[in-house]
Amino acid sequence: MRIIKTDTDGWDCVPELKEVAYILEGLREEKYEIDNCVRKTSLNDMVTQLKDQLQKALDELEYIDTDVEYKTVDLYANKSDYDD
User: Fold this and answer.
1) What pLDDT sits at residue 61?
2) Cα dihedral sign for 38, 43, 45, 48?
3) Which of 13, 24, 37, 58 is disulfide-compatible with 6, CB 3.0–4.6 A?
4) How confident is the model at residue 49, as a pLDDT?
5) Within a domain: residue 7?
6) What is the structure's pLDDT at 57?
């Protein structure tokens, strides 16, 4: 496993994860209908939209190298503090 040093403590260092979150957020209306027993979208359209968006999210996840560990470092700290 390799280590990548980053100055962010969130997942900004993995843009594919941000894209997946964006894709899933796009399913908010469908989730609202399901959670709140609202039926304004046909079942066929609902399932098709869910499948399409979930497949896009899965496709994006395939690009992520999971053999990486991200280590947050302070850019202003003494460099020798982080040498491994």
Assistant:
1) 96
2) positive
3) 13
4) 96
5) yes
6) 97
H helices present in 1-84, as ranges: 15-25, 28-35, 43-61
The domain total for the chain is: 1
Low-confidence ranges of the chain (pLDDT < 50): none
Question: Is residue 52 helix, strand or coil?
Answer: helix
CA 79 vs CA 8, 45, 71: distances in Å: 16, 54, 14
Q: What is the dihedral of CA 31, 33, 39, 41, to 10 degrees?
A: -50
**6 in a structural domain:** yes
The model's pTM is 0.74
pLDDT at residue 56 in the model? 97
- Which residue type is seen at 78? N
* Residue 84 maps to a domain: no
Residue type, 79: K
Do the domain assignments include residue 42?
Answer: yes
